[in-house]
Amino acid sequence: MTRNSIKVLLAVGAVVAATFALAAVATAGVVNSKHDFSSGGTGGNWGATNQAQVCIFCHTPHNAQAGQEPLWNRVALSKTFSIYSSDTFDGKSTIGQPGGNSKLCLSCHDGSVAIDAYVAGNPSASPKMMAIGDVYYPGSPYGQGGPNIGGNYAGNNNVNDLTNDHPVSFTYDDALANADKHLKLASALPATLPLYGGKMECATCHDVHNQKSIAGTKLLRVAKDGSALCLTCHLK
What is the pLDDT of residues 16-41, one digit of tens each? Predict the structure, then answer.
């Protein structure tokens, strides 16, 4: 094989590799992810039977929920949650009720609200799809674990319980890190884990639109191997 032939093969190989890389980027997104609840989509137990749209379960271009960005299409979540507390966390005084995009996540993930409980474009007045709490509960054939993090299911009195979940909607700044001694400075956190308005939210660790999430994880921005996700913020 001549030197020129080798160069041609290497060039072709580089083009093929680049094509596959672009294809991988192009296919990333909500479509075919865990958040694709459209008919025939990949939303699992919560897939719709009569809704071909993908974005409508969270967003709408018109008649969105007033005062809630970004063009939010889910019914308002007006619940009080039992929240995490620990004497070892120096920011406990700043932990309040979930807000920001965490409250948007909980409009599905608190376990009580049907996936198709949205404001605009619903083909019927009454939601027909299941709520997460209808799937994941003790004794369920799908198991107790899963995306229902509020413990909200029939027969459970401890509904809307976030006491055993990582705190969200608290201010994460250098003052907190200096007081806690076991957290990295907020100013030193990588862009991989973004804060929202200076606060840690659900979307700090999870990429709900599946643009920058790690394949094979639950839409995590950083893999859990070797506790890499935890160690991005925690000093241990």
Answer: 333 333 333 445 799 999 999 999 99
